[in-house]
Write a structure and sequence with these properties.
homodimer, alpha/beta, 2 domains, 6-stranded parallel β-sheet, 9 helices
Chain lengths: ~290, ~290
């Protein structure tokens, strides 16, 4: 059996093309959707991510704004910035790029977002709507991207055993709630650092989602024959063969060579689809708001 | 092996005694906590439940108010009633008794509750706080009661495999999030009507929580040796031996006679603890509000 690669770049391109077509089809009288990205400090990886998101916006005809605050910005400044964007009728979606500098608390900042513009789905009200099976909120982008990859790859989910490794507020928990929704109907197990018998749990997974945050944590030998493996992890580590070079690896040890049905590569798997979901949520906010 | 009965009445009595002592120990200048119960229509079971909750309040020194609306009340009337209670400084907790008459929608009514008085934990903001591991909200009473029974019975949870049958917004989903919390640390599987191989899933459970809503759905033979079984179901059915009589049964077929470690009886298991959790949440709202 050769494992099928679920190419996140190709799948995300299809979503972005749909987004672009939706935006292009608006009446002449209506303004384009707009996204505001708030970035605090100078974390290099965050700047790379924000650039990728803004480039994708441009490609799809979405207007994007970058609001950069200095690393020493205090909570009052950040909250005031978010409040102002919440009231700005020209802005449909607001993204607060995480992580924040250590002096700022993410939880209170996320709670300061206008829930109807929270296109990253991280305001507690949107988390609660997901938990309550209420479709009027926003689903966080990484879990939405994992589901999108599985659905666009025709991976059956109803009644199947999905094991999610990792219980984070950004990925593991919302993904569990999403996969439990009626119409998706997976049987969902969430395991984490305190779980016992992790190899055995992984071995029972028809679909495994690894969101542990540890490079190559999941051993090839643990995987069930015929499983579908989605790798949310992304880590930079020294290249094994080339001194002074690095490479990107995921949470799963070289899935491509395992006796499984399909896998998402790292890089080029979940990451691109996460960006595509952000744009789709932005268009959703624009459609709901009726802004123009 | 004789299965140990986890007596919800005895355990709930201890919680109620703690609640009573907390209320009694307040300064002379401070008013007692108060709970408002809103009941729409004349569902007989709802009236029984509301009476039990108000009696428990009286026993603990909590003031309780019943606001009864006619079955034909419209959404505007109900929402206005909830809004008025939300603004009333003499009221700490508000409970909207479910189910509502079919003409009313529970979701929009729950969203009309003041989140800081939502002692049943069903407003989406409180659901979201639970999902986000934010302890400033309220945990719904049935999931909180299940956890309380397990903890007070010294059932180890960290790293253990908990299987929850049922994915409801009131029980299965919030219980999953609660058991995943740091410091509780269970490995959690949620299965439901679309799950395949349910007998096998149940057989892997070190702790089984049945919240299916089907009488005697879980077969004795499915249970793992040494498991702990929590039965959230409660159903009235004809008595097998006495014509014209009925009896109450749970979602699990006669757990007492199975080769397991412990079980909650029906009745007298989760039900009494659910009421105790409502009172504990009411006192929490009173403490947070500082009302008096």
């Amino acid at each position: 059996m050769t494992a099928r690669k679920l190419d996140g770049r190709i799948l995300a391109d299809r979503v972005l093309e749909e987004v672009r077509a939706t935006v292009a089809a608006r009446p002449a009288s209506r303004r384009a959707p707009s996204l505001a990205v708030v970035l605090v400090g100078d974390d290099p990886a965050s700047h790379v991510y924000v650039n990728a998101k803004m480039q994708a916006c441009t490609r799809c005809g979405i207007e994007s704004h970058r609001i950069a605050l200095p690393a020493r910005a205090d909570a009052a400044t950040l909250h005031a910035t978010l409040a102002r964007l919440g009231e700005d009728a020209r802005i449909d979606g607001i993204l607060l790029q995480l992580p924040l500098p250590s002096a700022l608390e993410a939880r209170s900042a996320l709670a300061a977002l206008a829930p109807h513009k929270d296109v990253d789905g991280l305001h507690p009200l949107n988390a609660g709507k997901l938990a309550a099976d209420d479709f009027s909120g926003f689903v966080p982008c990484t879990p939405a991207g994992v589901l999108e990859i599985l659905q666009r790859s025709d991976v059956p989910l109803a009644g199947r055993r999905v094991v999610i490794l990792g219980r984070s507020v950004l990925v593991g928990r919302p993904l569990a709630l999403l996969l439990l929704r009626r119409g998706i109907d997976a049987t969902v197990t969430v395991a984490h650092s305190q779980s016992r018998e992790v190899a055995e749990l992984v071995g029972a997974a028809e679909i495994l989602v690894a969101a542990v945050g540890k490079p190559r944590f999941v051993r090839r030998a643990w995987l069930r024959r015929g499983a579908v493996v989605v790798d949310v992890g992304i880590h930079r580590e020294p290249h094994p063969d080339r001194p002074d070079a690095t490479r990107l690896v995921g949470d799963v040890e070289d899935a491509a060579t395992a006796d499984i049905a399909a896998y998402t590569p790292v890089p080029g798997g979940v990451g691109p689809m996460t960006v595509a979901m952000l744009l789709r949520n932005t268009v959703l906010a624009w459609q709901r708001g009726g802004g123009g």
